[in-house]
Design goal:
Largest sheet: 4 strands, antiparallel
Number of domains: 4
Mean pLDDT: 90
Number of helices: 2
Distance between the termini: 17 Å
Structural class: mainly beta
Strand content: over 45%
Number of strands: 24
Length: 509
């Protein structure tokens, strides 16, 4: 008769390539004539953006720009800043040709060193890390059923989420806002930060709707008050459609990244800089999952013939929870060593965290880098860097091997100096993450009857078996080349597990 196999395809996300490539930033910047002389550099910040990325054959290429913003003080202790653009093009050699794959490229500053070599020149040495991630979807077949030649199967039903689509969607946003405060004109932009917030994900006719907003925070000084700053917050809404092969029953995982954020002063009808041209680009990595009930086979044998069976330990994932929450960070920072008396600017960097799981508890612990520019009692600008700690705990309805990739963005922050050399820092952190449960199962991947295999020789029709207790009928049936159903029927058992020592009658066909 032979063995007839039934297989099922399982979709999963395939990481074709995942690597960091370093892009050096080495430049000697000369200030233009309209900029005051440099007495002291206070802060050098790199704003990285990937303008274009693509895969060509076995090479992934990224083209982008590094905006170097230098905040400095002149000989009169007035604070100014100067922007310098450093374009780059970098590639990564792939280990294979990736057809129909999606490229996700992100840039971050690894380190930056800036020093004034003269009153008009600044030397900058920095490294930008480019992460090239090439992803695609793939399928793997598993044996879900078999029949013929007395085949017996040990099956287990599991709930999994199969990957049906992986894609990216990048989109630009722009908006012009009136930000003139008390009719004061805008001087220089000191810092721009942006945080994407996803408010809704919906599947419409096989496409994915993404709704949310890009929360932008701009710190600038007034044109007539170089040592005073203003903070302007604005939300740029987005409503985007991503093309993907999805159905209404799919679950969607979306990770948002800011690829570029910029703010430029813009004149009004009177020629005064009272408007701000805000723009940003957001990139969304979208993974669609199809919930499925799958039966895997962990053991197989035949009551009639010898069989060749091969097994593999495989991991299956299930989307257990979606977390969209706000984490408050409140910490008092010690800045007494620099003698700051008045706050000029407070810039919060991207939060970093470590997430751990213990039973049904999730614990997230992280830090926010904080950069402060202050004025001391003599009005001299001073700079310092500190770290603010934060924690987040959550109880989950599920246990096992859990994992997640938290997306943390600063929703807003504030800082106030006190008279005792302390700074009260507050930040709102937007937390988005999907929590996955991973199941590791032994799975049958091939089953066949060897060529020329003879039938099993069975001499007895009934065997007496004395169990030691705590035994599975599957193990007993396998040992004597019979079936679990026959043993249960012969001994009038209601379960397939024997807890106590007893005698069983084993029918052998």
């Amino acid at each position: 008769m032979g063995i007839e196999l039934t297989t099922k395809s399982i979709g999963w996300e395939k990481i074709c390539f995942n690597s960091f490539v370093e892009q050096g930033v080495d430049c000697d910047i000369t200030l233009p004539d309209y900029c005051p002389d440099i007495m002291r550099v206070l802060r050098c910040t790199l704003y990285n953006s990937v303008v274009n990325s693509r895969i060509t054959g076995d090479r992934a290429t990224a083209e982008g720009n590094v905006k170097i913003r230098i905040v400095y003080a002149d000989d009169k202790n007035r604070i100014f800043c100067y922007d310098y653009d450093y374009p780059f093009s970098k590639y990564a050699q792939l280990n294979q040709t990736c057809d129909n794959a999606t490229l996700l490229c992100r840039a971050r500053t690894e380190y930056a060193n800036c020093r004034a070599v003269s009153k008009r020149r600044v030397d900058v040495h920095a490294v930008v890390g480019l992460r090239f991630e090439v992803i695609s979807t793939d399928t793997q077949s598993i044996i879900s059923d078999a029949c013929g030649d007395g085949i017996q199967l040990k099956k287990k039903g599991i709930e999994i989420d199969c990957v049906t689509a992986v894609t990216t969607k990048c989109f630009g946003l722009s908006q012009v806002e009136n930000v003139g405060e008390n009719n004061a004109g805008i001087g220089k932009v000191i810092d721009v930060s942006a945080s994407p917030v996803l408010t809704e994900t919906r599947i419409i006719k096989g496409k994915i709707l993404l709704k949310g907003e890009l929360c932008m925070r701009v710190i600038y000084n007034a044109d007539d008050k170089p040592n005073e700053t203003c903070c302007f917050n604005c939300n740029l809404p987005f409503n985007e459609i991503a093309e993907a092969n999805v159905t209404d029953g799919c679950r969607v995982d979306v990770a948002l990244y800011v690829n570029n954020a910029n703010a430029e002063p813009k004149t009004d009808n009177d020629g005064e800089y009272r408007y701000m041209n805000l723009c940003g680009e957001v990139c969304a990595k979208i993974t669609a999952y199809s919930p499925q009930s799958v039966k895997v086979i962990s053991d197989a044998y035949s009551t009639d013939v010898e069989v060749d069976a091969a097994y593999r330990q495989m991991e299956f994932s299930r989307l257990l929870h979606y977390c969209n929450d706000t984490v408050m960070c409140k910490q008092t920072l010690d800045v007494s060593s620099v003698g700051g008396q008045k706050l000029y600017s407070c810039v919060a960097g991207k939060p970093e965290c470590i997430c751990t799981f213990e039973n049904d508890k999730m614990h997230l612990k992280g830090k926010i880098p904080v950069s402060l520019i202050m004025l001391d009692g003599d009005g001299t600008p001073v700079f310092c860097e500190r770290e603010a700690d934060f924690e987040y705990n959550r109880t989950l309805d599920g246990a096992g091997q859990l994992s997640c990739n938290p997306q943390l963005e600063i929703g807003g922050c504030s800082c106030k100096l006190s008279s005792d050399g302390k700074a009260d820092f507050r930040a709102e952190i937007c937390l988005n993450m999907n929590i996955f449960q991973t199941l590791s199962e032994k799975v049958l991947v091939s089953l066949s009857v060897p060529e020329g295999c003879a039938k099993k020789n069975k001499k007895s029709s009934l065997i007496l078996c004395f169990t030691s207790g705590n035994e599975s009928l599957w193990d007993i049936a396998r040992r004597y080349d019979t079936t679990v159903e026959d043993i249960m029927r012969e001994n009038e058992l209601s379960t397939d597990y024997v807890e106590n020592k007893t005698m069983l009658m084993i029918p052998v066909k």
